[in-house]
């Protein structure tokens, strides 16, 4: 399963470590420091020119990445639950069939 983060960025669900809400998460000084270091080290990928609403921490091909997404964390979470519910209902059908 994959998750669309915005623009043309889609990543496998299994590679997602965490999804953070930007306005809430950036209140913390330590989170801001983490993001600044990640930016300096080249681990941040900005998905679009829009103001990021979410940052997604993922590990792709043994490299930690942070994606700045214009999509809200609640929308991304809904997408993950939707995908899980489809996956769950498909497994039930397969077991019965």
Features:
single chain; 97 residues; alpha+beta; 4-stranded mixed beta sheet; two-stranded antiparallel ribbon; globular; disordered C terminus
Number of domains: 1
Question: What's the rounded overall pLDDT mean?
Answer: 86
**N- to C-terminal distance:** 22 Å
Order of helices and strands: EEEHHEEEH
Identify the overall geometry: globular
Poorly predicted sequence stretches spanning 5 or more consecutive residues: 92-97
Largest sheet: 4 strands, mixed
**Sheet/helix structural class:** alpha+beta
- Helix amount: 40-55%
Q: Per DSSP, what share of the residues sits in E-state strands of 2 or more residues?
A: 25-35%
Q: How are the strands of the biggest sheet laid out side by side?
A: 3-5-6-4
Query: How much is the radius of gyration in Å?
Result: 15 Å
Count of beta strands: 6
Q: Number of helix segments?
A: 3
Report on this model:
With 97 residues, this protein is α+β, with helices and mostly antiparallel strands. It has one domain. The protein has three helices and six strands. It has helices at 22-25, 29-41, 73-96; strands spanning 2-6, 9-12, 16-21, 44-46, 54-60, 63-69. The longest helix has 24 residues, at 73-96. The radius of gyration is 15 Å and the shape is globular. Residues 92-97 have low confidence and may be disordered.
């Amino acid at each position: 399963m994959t998750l669309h983060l915005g623009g043309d960025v889609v990543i496998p669900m299994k590679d997602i470590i965490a999804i953070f809400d930007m306005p809430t998460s950036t209140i913390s000084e330590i989170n801001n420091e983490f993001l600044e270091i990640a930016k300096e080290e080249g681990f941040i990928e900005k998905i679009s020119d829009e103001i990021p609403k979410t940052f997604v921490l993922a590990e792709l091909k043994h490299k930690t990445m942070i994606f700045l997404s214009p999509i809200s964390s609640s929308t991304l979470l809904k997408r993950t639950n939707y995908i899980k519910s489809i996956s769950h209902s498909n497994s039930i059908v397969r077991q019965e069939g």
